[in-house]
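Quick one - inputs below.
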Amino acid sequence: MAGQLIVQKYGGSSVANTACIENVAARIIKYVGKGNKVAVVVSAMGDTTDDLIAMAKKINPNPSEREMDMLMSTGEQISTALLAMAIHKKGCEAISFTGPQVGIITDTSHTKAKILKIKTNRLKKELDNGKIVIVAGFQGISTNDEITTLGRGGSDLSAVALAASLGAAICEIYTDVEGIFTADPRVVADARKIDYLTFDEMLELAARGAKMHTRAVEVAKKFNIPLHIRSAFSDKEGTIVMDKGERIEEAVVRGAALTEKEAKITLCNVPDEPGIAARVFTELAGSNINVDMIVQNVSHKNSTDLSFTVLKDDLSRALKISRKLAGRIGIKEVLADENIARVSIVGVGMKSHHGVAAKCFSALAKNKINIEMISTSEISISCVVKKELGKAALAALHKEFELQKK
Amino acid sequence: MAGQLIVQKYGGSSVANTACIENVAARIIKYVGKGNKVAVVVSAMGDTTDDLIAMAKKINPNPSEREMDMLMSTGEQISTALLAMAIHKKGCEAISFTGPQVGIITDTSHTKAKILKIKTNRLKKELDNGKIVIVAGFQGISTNDEITTLGRGGSDLSAVALAASLGAAICEIYTDVEGIFTADPRVVADARKIDYLTFDEMLELAARGAKMHTRAVEVAKKFNIPLHIRSAFSDKEGTIVMDKGERIEEAVVRGAALTEKEAKITLCNVPDEPGIAARVFTELAGSNINVDMIVQNVSHKNSTDLSFTVLKDDLSRALKISRKLAGRIGIKEVLADENIARVSIVGVGMKSHHGVAAKCFSALAKNKINIEMISTSEISISCVVKKELGKAALAALHKEFELQKK
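Output:
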């Protein structure tokens, strides 16, 4: 690749200490040496963000979200300055920017802000002057002039949004693994790195626990920015995510994923009237709670059960909102279960093949794994099982669909 | 004090850890409880700034000043957010701001920026809404939209400038000592806390090593903002610095100070022509090097020696500039001496009393301390001596002028 504009994102493990930062500097310079322009997005060093959060919680167990953003945004700023210094040391020109400084404008939802637009004039000027630009990931400035952060993993989003705004040829996401695998290699020993994925497949895998931020993939898809998810510690090609299907392997199921981060809420005996589900999910969305799987079965005796999953971090808030609403609309019982895992299989080929769902369910049955919830999309099937059976379920599906074979 | 607008500045030792931050929060709330409005300026926690500098130097021994500002400004931002959270925890309203966010506009001299103006509209709005406002010290935003820092001790300057802009009744500078002493109590055992000082006296003492930033005192004097320098760890009154002489004690000499931070440069056999000194100090000022004492004696054989002191941190740069210039204007030799200390006595009363200088020099002579350079102003006398004799010189002057007596 030469003569292109490339956006590279380096995660916390890639800049964990000064030696890592020097390695990253050398890698960036190699790209510039080939005639490319490079814009870099960096995360906070290693555990910096966790350390800041721990310090905050020690002072105030329930800190204001505005102040959390003020606090956490410092981590990325430190990385950008140190990386610029490391590049200078190697004789190249570089300049660092905070998110607010560069004009990453967001809405006003602290700790979970959405990017509205990116002002690129300053960045373009510096790139045209031959400088490597380094932008603090994960952060922006709200329409109220407040410092905001984009939520966990938000640096991926910063990178993709920057790539879209600058019209970059590709967005490289550097991480501590070699790419996206057919399943988590720590759980499934013969899991295989996937060379190419479509945006939709990546989106499903990201949502189901693969190492990538869903919102980042959505933006990449929307603006058709190819992603290259790869290791910061090797030169091996990683996983390329792009729109066109021509380079896509023809397997039906492309990957399997497991997540233990969700909890299940069930509203029991919901009156079977139009608009109830809408009210529930409107209230949750209004509180910035992302609901993932939603399952509602046929009603009997004019009432039905409505189940959905949310991130465990959001469970107590979601439960509070659900119970309040339940009282108002006559729902008798609201149950919560944190002891769940979700296994999923993903693949664009899936939609045109019959029997994938059946094969999936019978693989779990063969392994005596009971399914608690099922949800399907055109390119994925997800099953909620008891948490302790999650890993076995992932292994069973990986084997059933022969994902270890290329 | 009640019903006033007070600016309080807490230094790094006052916010060194989460427990310290909680103490500071309690102190601030006490003032608010008495009906005052409080704007707070904080430094970085404990050794944060030093740690950041160490990390930078590990990556690049000669880091860019712009990137140093980017890096160092994070320290104060962390303190502001944590302090806001601590105040929230105690049930009061508070909001934190970075220097750039609040509109502390500076010139473009990175690591030593000068404040040009402070936009107070946002701060005033929040104060009027009953909030405690917390501003990151030491930092601002340049007219080029770059993050700048104000140099070591710059948080004092931020606080005084903020007090001036907001029209505060007083600016309290919290530190780890009880106030300004007649001499450093670690060196002179019977040194005594001074209750009141004039701005001019404080200025001289600050310049001569007392725990206060000179530029901050200059701004306080210019805008006539009373300062109260006091301990963050006790409720005792500290030292009040103000314009009016009415409350000033009548002693001739008010305090003595010692600094070992300076080095001496001597240009030997400088041609005795008009304009040479101007060229030397114009070049040094252009490189943002502060020259302190300047001594030039009568010439003999159409040439003279010109000596001056600079901060040790600036010595290598100052020497480079001096040597370059020396070559151009025919100065034969440029000498440097880092092994010096400067002792000073300060007092507004001094100017109207005869014999103070003589008493000073004879006190040093009695103790067999040789004087290498002498410089006097209306309210101070400074002598440069060998570094190893500095403490003895301070003690001798403190005793001679009976500063231990009230």
